Amino acid sequence: MLPAERMIIAVVAVVSLLLQVLLAPHIAIGFAIPNFPLVVCMVVAILKPRYYSSILPFLLGLAYDFISGGPIGAMAFSLTAFSTAAAWFYERSNNDTAFMAIANLALGLFLVEVCYGVFLMCFNAGTDPLGAFAYRIFPCFVYDLVLVVIAYVVFVRFFQRDETSQPMIDRLS
């Protein structure tokens, strides 16, 4: 990974935290509040799967936990586990089409939201699974999915493609 790309990722991570604090509460739709650190981690995991580490999602997840007032460590665990799994799966799928990228992003987002929703149900009394899915998990997933597709299209222009993203014919020659 180029040093300029690392700098872009660091700046975007800080901007995502600022957006989470300053903008997210004001653009909430019902109970669905956008999760900007989640969007950044998932997009970076798919765009740079070879160089993706667990440090970025852990730090952004921990910051999100402090910002949102949820259980400390819940988003850090969810984001670290499933964004790293999405990066691993995408790198090994050997299919760098936009459909596969968006499918991996959607699956990763859904798993993070479900895991975080389970943590919220465990630590908040009075929340039933159907209510958590209907009012927290699914609306936040849809909101974050729209944001992640937009972010993916934008960030594809900023990052240089890895050698794993080249067609197989080019790697053989």
Description:
- The structure is a single chain.
- By secondary structure, the protein is mostly helical.
- It is built from seven helices and no strands.
- It has helices at residues 3-22, 36-47, 55-68, 74-93, 98-123, 129-155, 168-172.
- Helix 1 (3-22) runs parallel beside helix 3 (55-68) and helix 4 (74-93) packs antiparallel against helix 5 (98-123).
- The longest helix is centred in the last third of the chain and has 27 residues, at 129-155.
- Mean pLDDT is 87; it is low at 165-173.
Task: List strands and helices in order, with pairings.
Layout: H1 3-22, H2 36-47, H3 55-68, H4 74-93, H5 98-123, H6 129-155, H7 168-172
Helix pairs in contact: 1-2, 1-3, 2-4, 2-5, 2-6, 3-4, 4-5, 5-6
Fraction in beta strands: under 5%
Uncertain runs with pLDDT below 50, 5 residues or more? 165-173
The total beta strand count reads 0
Indicate the percent of residues in helices: over 70%
Arithmetic mean of pLDDT: 87
- From N to C, what is the helix and strand string? HHHHHHH
Structural class: mainly alpha
What's the main sheet like?
none
Distance between the termini: 22 Å
Shape: globular
Count the DSSP helices: 7
Rg, nearest Å: 16 Å
Brief account:
The chain is an all-alpha fold.
